[in-house]
Write a structure and sequence with these properties.
Strands 1, 4, 5, 6, 7, 8 and 9 form a seven-stranded mixed β-sheet that branches. The chain has a four-stranded antiparallel β-sheet with strand order 11-12-10-13. It starts with a strand and ends with a strand. Helices cover 38% and strands 25% of the residues. The chain has 303 residues and is an alpha+beta fold. The chain binds adenosine-5'-diphosphate and ligand DP6. The site of ligand DP6 has 13 residues, from helix 4.
Length: 303
């Protein structure tokens, strides 16, 4: 694809929310995700003609803060004596809106660096590098992946045909990044310890549910885990929430459709948008119902 490297978005069914260690990046609790292949970033690197390192997303020049963030990251694994570069990236999802642009963007960037600087790294090495850029990106290398407290990233086999819709509440850049938000929760949330304990149990139950092909159990854990993660934001100082009134309306729609007999479950990340987990066999009838009840944008995600 015209020298572009691709990285995919992934959505956690059991969330990564809090770093136990920053160097190397390790999560407080094991987490598990589903990759959304239709939501991706594509990135290529060229020699810079300006004499400075440059970074563009969707043709928009990124701020100095963004450039230094990305350059600090890549300078940890590319040759120290290098020419100035221009990073050109396109996101198919809104950037920094809670739709996982950090995971697709980081995966694409790491692969693009591997190509441009001829690093010859194995996939396993690229996964290790990616998580230092953005924790969740290490899971994007597999359709379903777990990331454990010791840093291991594993592919998870799932026999169910899962998919997601996104009920878009807002495509705006969030006020607080995932990174800052989780850091605040680790430091100040009065229920952070409780969250990690819940998430550890959720992870074990999720693994069994996947092995049992038990979609009902997968869905219930997905919902309750997302709500538990979001409750840590309310117990932080200063307290905050990614969810808006419209997010709650979207969650109600999901519950209503489920009660009418089409099995689907919600999850939310660091942003107001609501993702709907379902089985592909239910796609057509679920889409009809969602279209009827949700009047704003809907993104259909292929897995
Ligand atoms: P999101 O919910 O979209 O993942 P985050 O706040 O977690 O939002 O991450 C947004 C950050 O991810 C951006 O500030 C940028 O540093 C990084 N990012 C987003 N898109 C790309 C990209 N295409 N290439 C490299 N980094 C990216
Ligand atoms: C809510 O991976 O974006 O989406 O490691 O600081 O870059 P950093 O954080 P990031 O956080 C993702 C948080 C989440 C939950 C998840 O994807 O597991």
């Amino acid at each position: 694809m015209d020298n572009f490297s691709i990285g995919y978005a992934n959505i956690a069914l059991v969330k990564y929310w809090g770093k136990k260690s920053k160097n190397p990046v390790l999560p407080f609790n094991p987490n598990i995700s589903l990759r959304l292949d239709s939501l991706y970033s594509k990135t290529k690197i060229e020699k810079s003609s300006s004499g400075y390192d440059e970074f563009y997303i969707n043709d928009k020049k990124q701020s100095d803060k963004e450039v230094s963030k990305i350059i600090n990251f890549i300078d940890k694994f590319v040759p120290s004596k290098r020419e100035r570069i221009k990073i050109i990236s396109y996101n198919t999802v809104p950037t920094a809106a809670g739709l996982s642009s950090s995971s697709s963007g980081t995966m694409a960037l790491v692969i693009a660096c591997n190509e441009y600087f001829k690093l010859n790294k194995s996939t396993e090495q690229l996964i290790k590098i990616a998580k230092e850029g953005s924790g969740s990106s290490c899971r994007s290398f597999f359709k379903m992946a777990s990331w454990l407290e010791d840093g291991t990233v594993k592919e998870i086999k799932c026999n169910l045909d899962l998919a997601m819709f996104i009920l878009v509440v807002s495509e705006d850049i969030k006020e607080i990044s995932s990174r800052e938000a989780m850091e605040r929760c680790v430091k100040t949330s009065t229920n952070f310890k409780e969250w990690t304990e819940t998430a550890k149990k959720d992870f074990d139950s999720m693994i069994s549910a996947i092995e049992e092909n038990n979609f009902t159990k997968i869905g219930k854990i997905t919902e309750s885990n997302a709500l538990a993660m979001h409750s840590t934001t309310k117990c932080a100082t200063p307290s905050f929430s990614f969810l808006t009134e419209e997010s709650y309306e979207a969650m109600d729609i999901v519950k209503k459709i489920r009660n009418s007999g089409i099995e689907c479950y919600f999850t939310m990340d660091a942003g107001p948008n609501v993702k709907v987990l379902y089985q592909k066999k239910d796609h057509d009838k679920l889409y009809e119902e969602i279209k009827y009840l949700w009047k704003k944008k809907i993104i259909q995600c292929m897995v």
